[in-house]
Write a structure and sequence with these properties.
Helices cover 37% and strands 19% of the residues. It is α+β, with helices and mostly antiparallel strands and 294 residues long. The protein has three domains: 35 residues, no CATH class; 136 residues, Alpha Horseshoe (Serine Threonine Protein Phosphatase 5, Tetratricopeptide repeat); 88 residues, Lipocalin (Beta Barrel). The strands form two sheets. Strands 3-4-5-6-7-8-9-10 form an eight-stranded antiparallel barrel. Strand 9 and strand 10 form a beta hairpin.
């Protein structure tokens, strides 16, 4: 956990540091001898390379390594070899649908990527063990923690589905395939291991009642867009962010995938949505429909 210090602490530390410089023989004059007029400018190359997020890792890079961990081994290797801490990266795809790089590799059955991430410090969990066919580990953890198999991974993907997704690949050795089959069989014996999130069907005509743009602020960042995914689900997006699939959980109320406690509630009039409120679970915002264009 980061430690936060007061301004007084900071100034005191700076005074101590300056005193230490004098003690080791660095006078103020000598320390600035190579800069014009005694200024203390950092080297231009250093200033230009520091990202706004520093000392945190750059958000674009964090997002990239999590995204690449779904399938792109070479890119993941390039990123984590240069900066090993990225192997522990996590990204919120929206509404609290957090996913780690290892979580991405685990739910897509990418064992090679998962092993690479673990070698660089990623932290394996129950979903990793399921994907890797480590049935004895799964059995021990679930026996010690009954009901833990009900927990979903990123995007509401079940524990059993992680094991199935690995089994669907064609790069398994005979020995690994047998382990994967045993893992799937074990998890199939636990009803909670494949307990999917609520997802009531929505017809095409019903979807059209929601599709459109809903404004809650200024500019494009102040607009939520409801669209239709190729899997016949509604989606919600903001600006250039990747649209998020939403599941209907009750009349005119939806939950984003991977965020079961969030509710998107539509207020209807004459069969058409007029407003959208977002609850997490307290109300966060209210948006007014401005057009039917998705």
């Amino acid at each position: 956990m980061p430690e936060y210090h007061s301004r007084r602490d900071f100034l005191g530390a700076m005074a101590t540091a300056c005193g230490a410089s004098t003690m080791i023989g660095l006078s103020a004059t000598h320390a600035r001898a190579d800069t014009p007029h005694g200024s203390e400018r950092p080297p231009e190359s250093t200033a230009a390379s520091v990202a706004p997020e520093f000392p945190r890792q750059e958000l674009d890079t964090v997002r990239e390594v999590v995204g690449a961990s779904h399938a792109r081994f070479d890119r993941v290797k390039e990123l984590v070899t240069a900066r090993p801490a990225l192997a522990k990266a996590a990204w919120d795809w929206g509404f609290g649908d957090w996913e780690t790089a290892l979580g991405a590799a685990s739910h897509t059955g990418q064992r090679k990527i998962a092993e690479l991430l673990i070698q660089h410090g990623a932290r394996p969990n129950l979903f990793t063990f399921a994907m890797m066919g480590q049935v004895d580990v799964l059995r021990a953890v679930i026996t010690a923690n009954p009901g833990i198999e009900r927990i979903h991974g990123p995007h509401d993907i079940t524990l059993l589905q992680h094991a199935r997704n690995r089994l669907s690949h064609d790069d398994l050795s005979n020995a690994e395939r047998e382990r994967a089959k045993k893992t799937v069989a074990y998890l199939e014996s636990l009803p909670g291991a494949d307990l999917t999130a609520p997802d009531e069907p929505v017809s095409d005509s019903q979807m059209q009642a929601y599709v459109g743009r809903y404004r809650f602020g200024d500019g494009e960042d102040g607009v939520l867009t409801i669209g239709i995914h190729r899997t016949a689900h509604l989606t919600i997006g903001r600006g250039k962010e990747f649209p998020h699939i939403i599941n209907r959980v009750e009349a005119h109320a939806f939950a984003p995938r991977g965020a079961p406690n969030v509710r998107l509630r539509f207020e209807m009039k004459d069969g058409r949505a007029e407003t959208l409120t977002v609850h997490d679970p307290i109300p966060l915002l209210k948006a007014v429909r401005t057009s039917d264009a998705g």
